[in-house]
Amino acid sequence: xxxxxxxxxxxxxxxxxxxxxxxxxxxxxxxxxxxxxxxxxxxxxxxxxxxxxxxxxxxxxxxxxxxxxxxxxxxxxxxxxxxxxxxxxxxxxxxxxxxxxxxxxxxxxxxxxxxxxxxxxxxxxxxxxxxxxxxxxxxxxxxxxxxxxxxxxxxxxxxxxxxxxxxxxxxxxxxxxxxxxxxxxxxxxxxxxxxxxxxxxxxxxxxxxxxxxxxxxxxxxxxxxxxxxxxxxx
Length: 234
Prior knowledge:
- By secondary structure, this protein is an all-alpha fold.
- It has helices at 2-13, 16-45, 52-59, 63-70, 73-96, 102-114, 118-131, 136-161, 169-190, 194-205, 212-233, and strands at 164-165, 209-210.
- The protein has two domains: 24-70, Orthogonal Bundle (Arc Repressor Mutant, subunit A), CATH 1.10.10.60; 74-212, Tetracycline Repressor, domain 2 (Orthogonal Bundle), CATH 1.10.357.10.
- One of its GO terms (molecular function) is DNA binding.
- Keywords: DNA-binding, Transcription, Transcription regulation.
């Protein structure tokens, strides 16, 4: 029995399923390393200014590994931009968790989004997919995930605090990101500061929801108005 137990690790190591899992795990790790190395280079130098050899050197990898995992530099660029946008979305959700009112919630989202260049990076990927339709599905999946996770996060905050949303969660999420992309791209072109972009986003977005206290006050005012009208009619 002891001899059999001693052999089991060697048998497991030779198991094709174990080898396949190890290969997939190593592949995911290498892809992640290449994305981590490429993203800051693309942000700083752009697509044309970044060579595959630069990315490979930054990741301590071989250029052939980039073409193996991503096929082309353009595909790597788009995947970096999509991943960074989803990371930004996660950061906005985390920043807004401490909000106690709808106003604080919207401000936390806008402030986090406008402090990053991830949306401008993603916009470059959108432009690239106009000429490379083979890369469009990744962008489409990213946008759908962006909206679905945004709607989930917003609905959770509304339910947790008892707010009354002025729009459906999905509509609120799509509107927020559409406004963010438009204002940030316009602001980048005009050299506006993150603070100016945030202020403009808040102005355009306006009120997203009402807190429980606001709703109660509105109800009280409505009841008073109804009572006054009833007395006047009497």
